[in-house]
Specification:
The protein contains 22 helices and 24 strands. The chain is of the alpha/beta class and about 600 residues long. The radius of gyration is 35 Å and the shape is elongated.
Length: about 600
């Protein structure tokens, strides 16, 4: 329909105004079809066929000539049940334009809908369950207009057009999205975007209540042997036949639930068993419905997946689908250790791999699933010994050389390590320098107390020298721990590219604290962290039973820096006596260690 607006040329000439061509044309799209001639309402019912009359009357209150055709399952097999085979159609005795097809017990939704699609004579069928009704929010004309819209029909016409079921969405969530097959369950993942300009959204699955093109519905496959589970199987199997489904939000049909009768309740109690068998028949261990959009950066979602034994990386977010498989198995702890390429670094790596079985890393690996990597700054020529070491153990990562360091590692190298671990999955990331002594028990007591571990940064938080007392505490980078979601956020492409590494000439401590300053994380203090230690000659700053006056000190958790020999002796003392400083006091002041 074309509408024309503008000035009238003849009227203008009559009063001496020259002719004008200021004419605006606009096109108005309208539906010229009568939906009663284009749509048949179909529904299947089992053990509650009395609801079908309510369905028909609700439509006839608005469309008095609309055909409603339903299938009704007979009671359990018996003399009366045998009379329903083969299916027979009959007119309703009191409701005009309503046909009832009596079918055998356990006929199933798939067979019922396929049968009704075969018998329908109109171009479209509106497929509903028996407990739906029409309401003032139901716009049949809107749905039919979307099916005929050139916006969609010129490219990929809709075969099925669903609608939001408000009652179910309030109680359970939006049952629409994309189907994704895995080696385990079949996932239904919700969608949060991709709507067209008319508000319609193309989906892979939606509730089994929709407006369908009759000819296309007849071409799709139905698994007649499935009494339940046919919903998921229908959408999964028929996408290979070019099924195009969508949901539009300008119409809805109320899901007018009623109290279950004894017979229907008995059928519902069989659903779990039937559904399990149904999914096995189509090749899946089960079906998982994700009724809200899961966030890959959410610690709550990540913890929920782990609790339910679901690989978190198998759930897609709203970017590019599921994440890639992690390079290693899921573990409780991942330890990133910054090491050096010299002989001293090689000695530390050998001790931490297990040559010193009482060192903190072997003990951590024995206590919980743990993986680690040694980050070593690359040189122009890689020593053959380091090449052999990597070939033997596979735990050395060469990181880019980045100018002069004050000792330890630079901000750029810390960012490299964090982004390198982007696709690794674990509960806690522990970052340490090679020459750090760690008393495992105090550290684990703090980490284990955070359950679930979310939005947390653990370390020796303190006030930086020269900082005002009201400023945020300072986290030393020699040893700290981050929960997985905190690491995942920092390593994500949306954040990592903004992480500054030029603060204070590339200082790792300045960069780390700048990254964490704007995050809403729990700053969990680890007691007993001592940095800048002068060695055994100055005494050990923790408890020692051989030094009674030291028993008032807090337990020693982290000490930096230590020599290889000091690490060995303190690790043995911590494992045997419970105090890392045991024996390491003024008595050893004249002993050359390491």
């Amino acid at each position: 329909l074309e509408l024309t607006t503008g000035a009238c040329p003849d009227a203008g000439e009559a009063i001496g105004v020259p002719k004008t061509s200021n004419i605006v044309r606009s096109t108005l799209h309208a539906l010229v079809d009568d939906v009663q001639d284009q749509v048949t309402v179909v529904a299947h019912s089992a053990s509650r066929c009395e609801l079908l009359e309510r369905l028909a009357l609700s439509f006839h209150s608005m469309y008095d000539r609309m055909l409603v055709m339903v299938t009704c399952e007979c009671p359990e097999p018996g003399p009366e049940g045998e009379r329903c085979s083969p299916p027979e159609a009959r007119d309703h005795p009191t409701i005009a334009f309503m046909k009832i097809v009596d079918v055998p017990y356990d006929f199933g939704l798939s067979r019922g809908k396929r049968l009704l699609a075969q018998w329908a004579q109109t171009e479209f069928v509106l497929v509903l369950d028996d407990d739906f009704v029409r309401s003032p929010l139901s716009c049949m004309e809107c749905m039919l207009l979307h099916m005929r819209s050139r916006m969609h029909s010129l490219t990929l016409p809709f075969d099925l057009l669903g609608f939001p079921i408000l009652e179910d969405e309030r109680n359970f969530g939006a049952f629409r999205g994309q189907l994704r097959a895995t080696n385990g369950p079949l996932y239904l993942e919700p969608m949060a975007s991709e709507a067209a300009v008319d508000g319609c959204m193309r989906v892979g699955i939606h509730p089994m209540a929709f407006l369908a093109r009759t000819a296309r519905l007849r071409q799709f496959k139905f698994q007649d042997q499935l009494p339940v589970g046919e919903h998921e199987q229908f959408f999964y199997a028929n996408r290979y036949l070019g099924l195009h489904a969508a949901v539009c939000f300008d119409s809805t049909f109320p899901h007018f639930r009623v109290q279950m009768s004894a017979g229907y309740k008995q059928r519902r109690e069989r659903m779990q068993e039937l559904a399990t068998d149904a999914f096995k028949k189509i090749g899946f261990q089960g079906m998982m419905y994700l009724l809200h959009k899961c966030d890959a950066y959410s610690g709550i979602d990540h913890n929920e997946f782990i609790q339910q034994n679901i690989p978190p990386w198998s759930i897609s977010d709203d970017t590019c689908g599921p994440q890639p498989e992690p390079p290693t198995d899921f573990v409780m702890f991942f330890v990133a250790i910054f090491s050096t390429m010299d002989d001293r670094g090689a000695l530390f790596r050998r001790m931490l791999r297990g040559e010193a079985p009482l060192a903190w890393l072997p003990r951590l690996a024995a206590a919980a699933p743990t993986r680690w990597a040694f980050f070593v700054e690359e040189q122009s020529i890689t020593p053959p010994a380091l090449v052999e070491e990597e070939a033997q153990h596979g735990d050395v990562v060469l990181m880019p050389q980045q100018g002069e360091t004050k000792g330890g590692f630079t901000a750029f190298q810390l960012k490299f390590a964090v982004t390198f671990l982007r696709d690794f999955h674990f509960r806690w990331l522990l970052v340490a320098e090679q020459d750090v002594f760690v008393h495992l028990e105090p550290v684990l007591s703090v980490l284990v107390a955070q359950e679930p571990p979310m939005r947390s940064a653990v370390g020796g938080w303190r006030a930086k020298a020269g900082m005002a007392s009201l400023q945020s505490p300072w986290l030393p980078p020699q040893f700290f721990a981050l929960s997985h979601d905190t690491k995942h956020l920092l390593a994500s492409p949306r954040v990592a590219r903004w992480l500054r590494t030029d603060l204070e000439n590339g200082d790792a401590a300045a960069a780390l604290n700048a990254w964490l300053a704007l995050l809403d994380v729990q700053r969990l203090e680890l007691q007993g962290v001592h940095l800048g230690w002068g060695g055994a000659a100055v005494g050990c700053p923790g408890k020692s039973s051989s030094v009674p006056q030291s028993m008032a000190l807090p337990p020693l958790a982290v000490l930096h820096p230590v020599a290889p020999g000091e690490l060995l002796l303190m690790s043995e003392a911590a494992a045997v006596h419970g105090f890392g400083c045991e024996g390491l006091n003024a008595t050893w002041a004249n002993i050359v260690i390491g």
